[in-house]
Write a structure and sequence with these properties.
- By secondary structure, this protein is of the alpha/beta class.
- It has a single domain (about 5-290), classed as Aldolase class I (TIM Barrel).
- About 45% of the residues lie in helices and about 15% in strands.
- It contains 13 helices and eight strands.
- The protein has helices spanning about 5-15, 30-40, 50-55, 65-75, 100-110, 120-140, 160-165, 175-185, 215-225, 240-245, 255-265, 270-290, 295-300, and strands at about 20-25, 45-50, 80-85, 110-115, 145, 190, 230, 250-255.
- An eight-stranded parallel barrel has the order 1-2-3-4-5-6-7-8, surrounded by eight helices.
- Helix 11 (about 255-265) runs antiparallel to helix 12 (about 270-290).
- It is globular and about 45 Å long.
Protein backbone atom coordinates (compact mmCIF):
# COMPACT_ATOMS: atom_id res chain seq x y z
CA UNK A 1 0.00 0.00 0.00
CA UNK A 2 1.36 3.43 -0.96
CA UNK A 3 2.35 5.71 1.90
CA UNK A 4 0.31 8.92 2.15
CA UNK A 5 2.67 11.86 2.37
CA UNK A 6 1.68 14.77 4.57
CA UNK A 7 1.97 18.39 3.59
CA UNK A 8 5.21 18.88 5.53
CA UNK A 9 7.02 16.28 3.42
CA UNK A 10 5.31 17.42 0.23
CA UNK A 11 6.44 21.02 0.67
CA UNK A 12 9.96 19.93 1.57
CA UNK A 13 10.07 17.86 -1.62
CA UNK A 14 8.99 20.84 -3.74
CA UNK A 15 11.48 23.16 -2.04
CA UNK A 16 14.43 20.80 -2.43
CA UNK A 17 13.56 20.10 -6.07
CA UNK A 18 13.30 23.85 -6.79
CA UNK A 19 9.79 23.42 -8.08
CA UNK A 20 6.54 24.72 -6.60
CA UNK A 21 3.09 23.67 -5.50
CA UNK A 22 0.30 25.89 -6.82
CA UNK A 23 -2.48 26.44 -4.29
CA UNK A 24 -5.79 27.18 -6.01
CA UNK A 25 -8.30 29.19 -4.00
CA UNK A 26 -11.94 28.08 -4.18
CA UNK A 27 -14.41 30.90 -3.46
CA UNK A 28 -17.27 28.94 -5.09
CA UNK A 29 -17.59 25.22 -4.35
CA UNK A 30 -18.34 24.11 -7.97
CA UNK A 31 -14.85 25.37 -8.91
CA UNK A 32 -13.21 22.57 -6.94
CA UNK A 33 -14.02 19.69 -9.30
CA UNK A 34 -12.48 21.21 -12.47
CA UNK A 35 -9.41 22.28 -10.50
CA UNK A 36 -8.84 18.70 -9.27
CA UNK A 37 -9.54 17.32 -12.75
CA UNK A 38 -7.00 19.65 -14.35
CA UNK A 39 -4.32 18.69 -11.82
CA UNK A 40 -4.96 15.03 -12.62
CA UNK A 41 -4.95 15.57 -16.38
CA UNK A 42 -1.66 17.51 -16.31
CA UNK A 43 -0.05 15.16 -13.75
CA UNK A 44 0.75 18.14 -11.57
CA UNK A 45 0.42 18.45 -7.82
CA UNK A 46 -1.54 21.26 -6.18
CA UNK A 47 -3.27 22.31 -2.99
CA UNK A 48 -6.98 22.98 -2.83
CA UNK A 49 -7.09 26.14 -0.72
CA UNK A 50 -9.88 28.12 0.88
CA UNK A 51 -9.41 31.25 2.98
CA UNK A 52 -11.75 32.62 5.63
CA UNK A 53 -12.83 35.51 3.42
CA UNK A 54 -14.00 32.99 0.82
CA UNK A 55 -16.73 31.69 3.09
CA UNK A 56 -17.44 35.11 4.62
CA UNK A 57 -17.48 37.27 1.46
CA UNK A 58 -17.87 34.69 -1.31
CA UNK A 59 -19.85 31.43 -1.50
CA UNK A 60 -17.65 28.57 -0.30
CA UNK A 61 -20.04 28.04 2.60
CA UNK A 62 -18.15 26.92 5.68
CA UNK A 63 -15.17 24.89 6.80
CA UNK A 64 -17.40 21.78 6.80
CA UNK A 65 -18.89 22.48 3.37
CA UNK A 66 -15.40 22.88 1.91
CA UNK A 67 -14.14 19.72 3.59
CA UNK A 68 -17.13 17.67 2.43
CA UNK A 69 -16.79 18.87 -1.17
CA UNK A 70 -13.10 18.04 -1.09
CA UNK A 71 -13.88 14.51 0.12
CA UNK A 72 -16.27 14.16 -2.81
CA UNK A 73 -13.89 15.26 -5.58
CA UNK A 74 -10.38 14.73 -4.20
CA UNK A 75 -7.62 12.79 -5.93
CA UNK A 76 -4.88 12.43 -3.33
CA UNK A 77 -2.28 11.41 -5.86
CA UNK A 78 -2.46 15.04 -7.00
CA UNK A 79 -4.06 17.09 -4.20
CA UNK A 80 -4.20 17.95 -0.51
CA UNK A 81 -6.53 20.34 1.36
CA UNK A 82 -5.06 23.56 2.79
CA UNK A 83 -6.78 26.18 4.92
CA UNK A 84 -5.53 29.50 3.60
CA UNK A 85 -5.63 32.93 5.33
CA UNK A 86 -7.30 32.87 8.73
CA UNK A 87 -6.47 36.37 9.94
CA UNK A 88 -6.08 37.53 13.51
CA UNK A 89 -7.33 40.93 12.36
CA UNK A 90 -9.34 40.76 9.15
CA UNK A 91 -9.45 43.03 6.10
CA UNK A 92 -12.19 45.11 7.78
CA UNK A 93 -9.99 45.59 10.86
CA UNK A 94 -12.20 43.29 12.96
CA UNK A 95 -10.81 40.84 15.53
CA UNK A 96 -11.24 37.21 14.44
CA UNK A 97 -11.57 34.12 16.66
CA UNK A 98 -8.73 32.63 14.68
CA UNK A 99 -7.91 29.80 17.09
CA UNK A 100 -11.48 28.51 16.82
CA UNK A 101 -11.38 28.34 13.01
CA UNK A 102 -7.89 26.87 12.85
CA UNK A 103 -8.49 24.26 15.55
CA UNK A 104 -11.77 23.23 13.94
CA UNK A 105 -10.03 22.75 10.59
CA UNK A 106 -7.16 20.79 12.11
CA UNK A 107 -9.55 18.50 13.97
CA UNK A 108 -11.74 18.07 10.88
CA UNK A 109 -8.87 16.77 8.77
CA UNK A 110 -7.42 19.67 6.80
CA UNK A 111 -3.86 18.80 5.80
CA UNK A 112 -2.31 22.19 6.68
CA UNK A 113 -3.44 25.57 7.98
CA UNK A 114 -2.41 29.21 7.70
CA UNK A 115 -2.60 31.91 10.36
CA UNK A 116 -2.26 35.48 9.13
CA UNK A 117 -0.99 37.86 11.79
CA UNK A 118 0.47 40.30 9.27
CA UNK A 119 -1.68 43.19 10.55
CA UNK A 120 -0.16 42.81 14.02
CA UNK A 121 3.11 44.08 15.40
CA UNK A 122 6.05 41.70 15.03
CA UNK A 123 5.84 40.59 18.68
CA UNK A 124 2.08 40.05 18.47
CA UNK A 125 2.41 38.14 15.18
CA UNK A 126 5.04 35.89 16.75
CA UNK A 127 2.87 35.19 19.80
CA UNK A 128 -0.26 34.41 17.76
CA UNK A 129 1.62 32.23 15.29
CA UNK A 130 3.37 30.30 18.06
CA UNK A 131 -0.03 29.41 19.58
CA UNK A 132 -1.23 28.06 16.25
CA UNK A 133 1.98 26.10 15.66
CA UNK A 134 1.68 24.42 19.07
CA UNK A 135 -1.93 23.45 18.36
CA UNK A 136 -1.33 22.20 14.81
CA UNK A 137 1.92 20.36 15.47
CA UNK A 138 0.21 18.50 18.32
CA UNK A 139 -2.17 17.22 15.63
CA UNK A 140 0.61 16.44 13.16
CA UNK A 141 -0.04 19.13 10.56
CA UNK A 142 2.14 22.03 9.34
CA UNK A 143 1.48 25.74 9.65
CA UNK A 144 1.98 28.60 7.23
CA UNK A 145 2.22 32.19 8.47
CA UNK A 146 2.71 35.60 6.89
CA UNK A 147 5.26 38.30 7.57
CA UNK A 148 5.21 41.58 5.70
CA UNK A 149 2.33 43.47 4.16
CA UNK A 150 0.90 42.02 0.94
CA UNK A 151 -1.54 44.70 -0.18
CA UNK A 152 -4.79 44.09 -2.02
CA UNK A 153 -7.18 42.49 0.50
CA UNK A 154 -8.38 45.83 1.86
CA UNK A 155 -11.26 47.65 0.22
CA UNK A 156 -10.58 50.90 -1.60
CA UNK A 157 -7.96 52.05 -4.08
CA UNK A 158 -4.32 51.10 -3.73
CA UNK A 159 -1.40 53.47 -4.19
CA UNK A 160 0.30 53.26 -7.62
CA UNK A 161 2.06 49.91 -7.86
CA UNK A 162 5.43 51.25 -9.03
CA UNK A 163 5.42 53.65 -6.08
CA UNK A 164 4.87 50.74 -3.71
CA UNK A 165 7.56 48.61 -5.31
CA UNK A 166 10.18 51.35 -5.44
CA UNK A 167 9.66 52.20 -1.77
CA UNK A 168 9.79 48.57 -0.63
CA UNK A 169 7.00 49.49 1.78
CA UNK A 170 5.62 46.40 3.45
CA UNK A 171 8.32 44.08 2.07
CA UNK A 172 9.34 41.30 4.43
CA UNK A 173 12.48 42.15 6.38
CA UNK A 174 15.05 39.29 6.37
CA UNK A 175 16.20 39.92 9.95
CA UNK A 176 12.62 39.98 11.21
CA UNK A 177 11.93 36.81 9.24
CA UNK A 178 14.88 35.05 10.88
CA UNK A 179 13.57 35.93 14.33
CA UNK A 180 9.98 35.09 13.40
CA UNK A 181 10.81 31.58 12.19
CA UNK A 182 13.13 30.85 15.12
CA UNK A 183 10.58 31.93 17.73
CA UNK A 184 7.44 30.42 16.19
CA UNK A 185 8.62 27.13 14.68
CA UNK A 186 6.42 27.83 11.65
CA UNK A 187 6.84 25.42 8.72
CA UNK A 188 6.37 27.78 5.74
CA UNK A 189 6.47 31.54 5.47
CA UNK A 190 4.42 33.74 3.15
CA UNK A 191 6.46 36.79 2.23
CA UNK A 192 5.99 40.19 0.60
CA UNK A 193 8.48 40.95 -2.18
CA UNK A 194 6.30 42.91 -4.61
CA UNK A 195 3.33 40.54 -4.88
CA UNK A 196 -0.23 41.80 -4.32
CA UNK A 197 -3.55 40.19 -3.44
CA UNK A 198 -6.53 40.54 -5.73
CA UNK A 199 -9.48 39.09 -3.81
CA UNK A 200 -11.57 42.05 -2.69
CA UNK A 201 -9.69 45.12 -3.80
CA UNK A 202 -11.61 47.82 -5.66
CA UNK A 203 -10.42 46.29 -8.94
CA UNK A 204 -11.73 42.80 -8.14
CA UNK A 205 -13.51 42.39 -11.48
CA UNK A 206 -10.76 44.03 -13.51
CA UNK A 207 -7.45 42.69 -14.71
CA UNK A 208 -4.96 42.63 -11.85
CA UNK A 209 -2.04 45.02 -11.77
CA UNK A 210 1.01 43.37 -13.31
CA UNK A 211 3.40 42.79 -10.44
CA UNK A 212 7.10 42.03 -10.34
CA UNK A 213 9.27 40.57 -7.60
CA UNK A 214 12.45 41.54 -5.80
CA UNK A 215 14.58 38.43 -6.25
CA UNK A 216 17.37 40.03 -4.20
CA UNK A 217 14.98 40.40 -1.25
CA UNK A 218 13.79 36.82 -1.78
CA UNK A 219 17.37 35.53 -1.66
CA UNK A 220 18.07 37.42 1.56
CA UNK A 221 14.93 36.05 3.22
CA UNK A 222 15.58 32.51 2.02
CA UNK A 223 19.12 32.58 3.39
CA UNK A 224 17.89 33.99 6.70
CA UNK A 225 15.12 31.44 7.39
CA UNK A 226 16.07 28.19 5.65
CA UNK A 227 12.47 26.99 5.20
CA UNK A 228 10.06 26.80 2.23
CA UNK A 229 8.68 30.20 1.24
CA UNK A 230 5.24 31.05 -0.13
CA UNK A 231 4.15 33.59 -2.72
CA UNK A 232 0.60 34.90 -2.38
CA UNK A 233 -1.10 36.89 -5.10
CA UNK A 234 0.25 34.65 -7.85
CA UNK A 235 -2.09 35.97 -10.55
CA UNK A 236 -0.65 38.80 -12.63
CA UNK A 237 3.01 38.42 -11.71
CA UNK A 238 5.25 38.50 -14.76
CA UNK A 239 6.02 34.95 -15.81
CA UNK A 240 9.79 35.38 -15.77
CA UNK A 241 9.62 36.69 -12.20
CA UNK A 242 7.47 33.76 -11.05
CA UNK A 243 9.80 31.15 -12.57
CA UNK A 244 12.85 32.91 -11.13
CA UNK A 245 11.22 33.02 -7.70
CA UNK A 246 10.68 29.27 -7.79
CA UNK A 247 14.38 28.78 -8.51
CA UNK A 248 15.20 30.97 -5.50
CA UNK A 249 13.15 29.27 -2.79
CA UNK A 250 9.42 29.83 -3.43
CA UNK A 251 7.83 26.41 -2.94
CA UNK A 252 4.14 27.35 -2.99
CA UNK A 253 2.28 29.87 -5.15
CA UNK A 254 -1.28 30.93 -4.41
CA UNK A 255 -3.56 31.46 -7.41
CA UNK A 256 -7.06 32.89 -7.01
CA UNK A 257 -8.03 35.70 -9.38
CA UNK A 258 -6.97 33.84 -12.54
CA UNK A 259 -9.51 31.05 -11.99
CA UNK A 260 -12.17 33.04 -10.12
CA UNK A 261 -12.78 35.64 -12.83
CA UNK A 262 -13.53 33.12 -15.64
CA UNK A 263 -15.96 31.35 -13.31
CA UNK A 264 -17.75 34.57 -12.37
CA UNK A 265 -17.91 35.64 -16.02
CA UNK A 266 -19.84 32.52 -17.08
CA UNK A 267 -21.82 31.46 -14.01
CA UNK A 268 -24.80 33.46 -15.30
CA UNK A 269 -24.84 31.15 -18.33
CA UNK A 270 -24.58 27.85 -16.41
CA UNK A 271 -22.53 26.09 -13.75
CA UNK A 272 -21.18 23.74 -16.42
CA UNK A 273 -19.97 26.58 -18.61
CA UNK A 274 -18.30 28.23 -15.63
CA UNK A 275 -16.62 24.96 -14.66
CA UNK A 276 -15.36 24.45 -18.22
CA UNK A 277 -13.83 27.95 -18.10
CA UNK A 278 -12.03 27.10 -14.86
CA UNK A 279 -10.71 23.84 -16.32
CA UNK A 280 -9.44 25.49 -19.49
CA UNK A 281 -7.77 28.26 -17.50
CA UNK A 282 -6.16 25.70 -15.21
CA UNK A 283 -4.58 23.91 -18.16
CA UNK A 284 -3.12 27.16 -19.45
CA UNK A 285 -1.82 28.15 -16.02
CA UNK A 286 -0.17 24.82 -15.27
CA UNK A 287 1.31 24.23 -18.71
CA UNK A 288 2.21 27.70 -19.90
CA UNK A 289 2.34 30.21 -17.05
CA UNK A 290 3.77 28.12 -14.21
CA UNK A 291 5.38 25.36 -16.31
CA UNK A 292 4.45 22.74 -13.70
CA UNK A 293 3.02 19.98 -15.87
CA UNK A 294 4.19 16.51 -14.72
CA UNK A 295 5.39 17.87 -11.36
CA UNK A 296 3.71 15.18 -9.28
CA UNK A 297 6.55 12.65 -9.27
CA UNK A 298 9.02 15.14 -7.79
CA UNK A 299 6.58 16.48 -5.21
CA UNK A 300 4.49 13.50 -4.18
CA UNK A 301 6.21 10.32 -5.38
CA UNK A 302 4.35 7.07 -4.95
CA UNK A 303 6.03 4.68 -2.53
CA UNK A 304 5.05 1.13 -1.60
Amino acid sequence: MAERLGNTAIMQNAWKARTAIPAFNIPYLPMMEPVVRALHDTRSFGFIAVARLEWIKFESGSLRDIYDEYQRVKDERFTRLHLDHVPVIDEDQLVVDYMKDLTEAADMGYDSVMVDGSRLSLDENIAATRKVVEMAHARGIPVEAELGSIVGHEAGPMPPYEELFASGKGFTDPDEARRFVAETGVDWLSIAIGNIHGAISSARKEKKTEARLSIDRLDAISTAVGIPLVLHGGTGIRKEHTLEAIRHGIAKINVATAIRQPYEALIGQSVEAAQDAVYDTMLELIRDELELENSVDAICPQTD
